[in-house]
């Protein structure tokens, strides 16, 4: 939407949503509302970075190869069944209506167990990262050697550490498009089990790998392990449970999250929790350990392929994702889009869900989510609900600010929001107030003293899951040379990386029907809070 169109829409909405006077510095309150089913973007996934559904793909294979390459079912009739970077990029485009911004990328190194990773392989890895960046995606990245549970030959710790040293430059160079780097390297599919040489049984080996991973990764990026107890194996059996006081810090415990690759598969979640008698439920110490740590870490998951161990109930899935703060989840497993037959996720797409069910289960309940524009009740599906609440969902509540202020004077503003998602934001993110002028240019920015990673959906451990209201406050001096005029006032939440900061695909978009999205030419991505008239300086 162009500047003048946004300004007109903002002025109309302010007439109904604000209170106060038009005098200089007089405060007014602007109230915002969530997205209803029949609003624009109301029945598709709201695109936001580093959250939500993810595809799954092997990448950095030689073009034209066919070994261990699975073509998604929806592409099989359109493309040759051989490897190409174009295949997984087309797969990602297919899921754009789901708000997709993530791709789990498996990079297999089995050809290099006897020596160094080749220059050609490293170049292929870089091409994969270039493809992610061009598509506005980020990677859930995993390196592995063993492609099944029947491999005859395993790798050594020496080989893994040597390869990590080789991979370090390309990982650091592309950390901007890495959401999380999973621990990988050991065992079948890099899951730390069923390895040919039982490397996962040596906890000192696992500790050495995790230490090297954390050294290779920039300090603001995290890794994940398949089973919660693996974290203790790698960091020490007496590891203190992570809490808010150490969250998002440089300590190793704050940088190791979880990926549950057997989500709700049988009583044990596919071997995630083997401890009896509680298995996959509160009371199991390992389950409770993940419950306590998950608010502060990236949590990913996937169903078993082909509904093995039974079809997973979508409502139970939503409750578990809420409890364990899932950031991302696979759209590949047990879904017809990959497997070509009707499976569990397809059933979620047909299973209805309404506001009463969400309220009774104390699941996040976004404003207007189960309504149409006339306020009539609307039934959603479990798939839609999970799609929209995986990760974070920032819903602005209100802004308190003046209608006009003089150039050079102080601007005082307060913005409140609720995170309606299952998790908070994981990687560092910036927050700015911006003024957009009549030429559709950013005329002024002010960095806010806040950390979006602290925007928890509810207080960790709260049995009622009561939504938290987060307040952003600022009192800043405007430039005295700011030309008098009407401006758009916005909240900008860009990626921290300089390389992505001005790319709207990597900025956070609020889940509000009355907060316009300003992204001229695909740049910036600003949530427009309202208008602000700048008066001449005194």
* CATH homologous superfamily annotation of the largest domain: Glycosidases
Q: Largest sheet, described in full?
A: 8 strands, parallel, barrel
Strand order in the largest sheet: 3-4-5-6-7-8-9-10
Binned strand content = 15-25%
Radius of gyration computed on alpha carbons:
24 Å
Annotated CATH topology of the largest domain: TIM Barrel
From the 3D coordinates, which CATH architecture of the largest domain would you assign? Answer: Alpha-Beta Barrel
Broad structural category: alpha/beta
Number of helices, counting only DSSP H or I runs of 4 residues or more? 12
Low-pLDDT stretches are 15-24
Percent helix: 10-25%
CATH class of the largest domain: Alpha Beta
Distance, first to last CA:
34 Å
Indicate the overall shape: globular
**What's the total number of strands?**
21
Mean pLDDT: 94
Summed up, the domain count is: 3
Short overview:
The chain is an alpha/beta fold and 538 residues long.
Give me some keywords for this one.
Immunoglobulin-like; 538 residues; alpha/beta; TIM Barrel; 8-stranded parallel barrel
